[in-house]
Amino acid sequence: DEESGGGEEYLFKIVIIGDSAVGKSNLLSRYARNEFNMHSKATIGVEFQTQVLEIDGKEVKAQIWDTAGQERFRAVTSAYYRGAVGALVVYDISRRSTFDSITRWLEELNTHSDTTVARMLVGNKCDLDNIRAVSIEEGTSLAEAEGLFFMETSALDSTNVKKAFEIVIREIYSNVS
Ligand code: GDP
Ligand code: MG
């Protein structure tokens, strides 16, 4: 594609999954708009946000999808996963049950994907260290066992948010380029 005059362009679909209220929507709004909402309700309307990066002098568009709150009903549809080449699989470090759900989310992701998906395990809300219910070591070993990248983030104070998305985007790029 020569439209930009810069040669190839890339479009990557990335999905964010994990239990309700782990901070998926806020991770996306922090990354895409540098916004955080303390009282965010289930996402209404917007299906995805697009971020444009330059890697190796090439334009890379990351189309990052957020659920509309369907995860509360365990009803994330196959349309949501279709074509995804990257995923952030998110739990809340202050709620054990959200970490216990990760295996199920990984299974669901596997079921719905027919290509290699760059996957990052994300322990969000690391600002809540004082009420932590999942240790960093537990996150690290699950990630190692499942072959995932791992990072603890905070959408509230911005810790590692950009890093988490960009590691996934760069991994996808290296898978396809
Ligand atoms: P989603 O259901 O996974 O999309 O979660 P939301 O993004 O809607 O966040 C659920 C709640 O957790 C909201 O009250 C957010 O303000 C809060 N939240 C999200 N990320 C963080 C974080 O990193 N730290 C803290 N302390 N709260 C967060
Ligand atoms: Mg949400």
From TrEMBL:
Compartment annotation: Endomembrane system
Q: Which Gene Ontology terms of cellular component type are present?
A: endosome; Golgi apparatus
Q: Which UniProt keywords apply?
A: GTP-binding, Lipoprotein, Membrane, Nucleotide-binding, Prenylation
Q: Which stretch is the leader sequence?
A: none
Annotated membrane topology is: Lipid-anchor
Domain of life of the source:
Eukaryota
Q: Name one GO molecular function term.
A: GTP binding
Q: What protein does this entry describe? A: Ras-related protein RABA5c-like
Fragment boundaries within the full protein? 4 to 180 of 220
